[in-house]
TrEMBL record:
Species of the source: Rhizobium fabae
GO function term, MF aspect, one: transaminase activity
Limits of the HTH gntR-type domain: 15-83
Protein name in UniProt: PLP-dependent aminotransferase family protein
Keywords: Aminotransferase, DNA-binding, Pyridoxal phosphate, Transcription, Transcription regulation, Transferase
Keyword Membrane: no
PANTHER family: HTH-TYPE TRANSCRIPTIONAL REGULATORY PROTEIN GABR, TRANSCRIPTIONAL REGULATORY PROTEIN
SUPFAM superfamilies per UniProt: PLP-dependent transferases, Winged helix' DNA-binding domain
Keyword Cell inner membrane found: no
UniProt superkingdom: Bacteria
A Pfam family the protein falls into: GntR
Family of the protein in this entry: In the C-terminal section; belongs to the class-I pyridoxal-phosphate-dependent aminotransferase family.
InterPro entries according to UniProt: Aminotransferase_I/II_large (IPR004839), HTH_trans_reg/aminotransferase (IPR051446), PyrdxlP-dep_Trfase (IPR015424), PyrdxlP-dep_Trfase_major (IPR015421), PyrdxlP-dep_Trfase_small (IPR015422), Tscrpt_reg_HTH_GntR (IPR000524), WH-like_DNA-bd_sf (IPR036388), WH_DNA-bd_sf (IPR036390)
């Protein structure tokens, strides 16, 4: 396996053998498999494992000493220097083709200009969001007192917004008092705080396969061991779920219950009860990411509702329905955990953004928000049908027809690699989301996630048809 990786790196990067050894050591230092002060593999040991001469390894080590990356201690060996390299997420884990790397999708989507098409991104076009409600909220905020515009927020976050979130959660069967809710800067920050609070490096975390690709990146940032369980149209594969939790004893399970990303599937009550029973049996904490809640017509089962926030931590945000520029999310959990999370929030971001919380509160309290969401749900359902038909005409088949939301998880024609399609489409200024970016097992080679709200332009289908035809040949 090591020889194969070395040959691949040499062929792709054109490195000499010495440069390959240096890159290998740098990668291990960046990924913290070689930590500060750690002893490097012996010259003979590394030479044998990489099938290289000892002189090649000696040369590489000497160059790394000259760079200051490692230290030489005569008679003892080589050690990671005090000036260790910064942690580099891109170096953690096996090297993936950049076309199926989550950072590739995120960067291309975020850096795209207004003329680029983004069927692979995870948000609505600006014209689909409630701009008028946000403008009214901004005007209201402009008339607020000085504290709202200039002061820190309280540690838990703006009380009226937490009260509103508590009522909204109650509509989905989740009982949480305002004191059990802590505001965060986003749903992503909420998960980050939970990981900081509950995980130690090396802890095992269970995710769906496929799942939202940034879960992978975030968990790697926390040095967690990630294991996956196949996802079905009604939730995780229960037989495999039971096997995985028994074998790996994960600390956390991170999932979507309502509208699953990327599949659009909905958790069934039977699956939810079985998952909670297994969580109780194996002392597993569940993080329920519910950022797509407002896209539903009828509330799906929530693990937090069945569990009463005993083993489930519930999170949400408003980036997908209000504005990605006004970043605001929340965590709901049992009181003793909210207390610890609040201390951690103070340590990492102090008081949080009061102005954004005031803005979100004003927008959500506007009677136009609910009307907007009702219109948006109908618009997405109509668009979902249109895009599904057009994709099927290209031989791209939805894995299921979602009940709500913006995503279609689709299988490409046999023999087509989604990464190849994404690379070719990018040359035409179209950003796509290949399946393996979502799959820990790398078993979604010919799958792709489409955001239907971003896939209406005829150019997207023209380019897809052209690329699929060329790739098939």
């Amino acid at each position: 396996m090591v020889r194969k990786a070395v040959r691949m790196n040499e062929e792709m990067a054109g490195r000499t053998r010495v440069e390959t050894v240096m890159a290998t050591i740098r990668q291990r230092i960046a990924g913290r498999s070689l930590t500060l002060g750690a002893r490097l593999p012996s010259v003979r040991g590394l030479a044998a494992s990489m099938k290289l001469s000892t002189s090649t390894v000696v040369d590489a080590y000497e160059r790394l000493v000259a760079e200051g990356a490692i230290l030489s201690r005569p008679g003892s060996g080589f050690y990671v220097a005090n000036q260790a390299a910064p942690f580099a997420l891109a170096e953690v884990g096996p090297k993936l083709d950049r076309a199926v790397d989550p950072f590739w999708i995120s960067r291309q989507s975020l850096e795209a200009d207004e003329t680029d098409l983004k069927p692979g991104c995870g948000w609505l076009p600006p014209s689909w969001l409630p701009g008028d409600s946000m403008r009214r909220a901004l005007r209201t905020l402009a008339r607020a007192d000085g504290a709202a515009l200039a002061d820190y927020s309280s540690p838990l976050g703006l009380p009226p917004l937490r009260q509103l979130i508590s009522r909204r959660m109650g509509e989905r069967g989740i009982e949480a008092s305002p004191d059990q809710i802590m505001l965060a800067d986003s749903g992503t920050q909420a998960i980050d705080l939970i990981c900081r609070f509950l995980l130690e490096p090396g802890d095992t975390v269970l995710v769906d396969d496929p799942c939202y690709f940034n879960f992978h990146a975030l968990l790697r940032a926390h040095r967690a061991k990630i294991v996956g369980v196949p996802y079905t149209p009604s939730g995780p594969d229960l037989e495999r779920f039971a096997e995985v939790v028994a074998e790996h004893r994960p600390r956390l399970y991170i999932t979507n219950s309502a509208i699953h990303n990327p599949t659009g599937a909905t958790l069934s009550p039977v699956t939810a009860h079985r998952v909670l029973k297994l969580a109780d049996q194996f002392d597993l904490t569940i993080v329920e990411d519910d950022i797509f809640a407002d896209f539903e017509y009828t509330p799906a089962p929530r693990l937090a509702a069945f569990d009463g926030l005993e083993r489930v931590i519930h999170i949400g945000s408003f980036s997908k329905t209000l504005s990605a520029s006004a970043r605001c999310g929340f965590v709901a959990a049992k009181p003793e955990w909210i207390d610890g999370l609040t201390d951690l929030k103070i340590a990492t971001s102090f008081g949080g953004g009061r102005m954004t919380a005031e803005l979100v509160l004003n927008a959500l309290s506007d009677g136009g928000y609910r009307k907007h969401m009702e219109t948006l749900r109908h618009r997405l359902a109509r668009t979902m049908g249109e895009v599904s038909v057009r994709l099927k005409g290209l031989g791209i088949t939805p894995w299921l027809e979602p009940q709500a939301g913006m995503f279609l998880w689709c299988r490409l024609p046999d023999g087509i690699d989604a990464a190849d399609v994404a690379r070719a489409a990018l040359k035409k200024r179209i950003v796509l989301a290949p399946g393996n970016a979502f799959s820990l097992s790398q078993s979604a080679t010919n799958f792709m996630r489409f955001n239907v709200s971003q896939t209406l332009d005829a150019r997207a289908f023209e380019v897809l048809g052209d690329v699929l035809g060329k790739t098939a040949r």
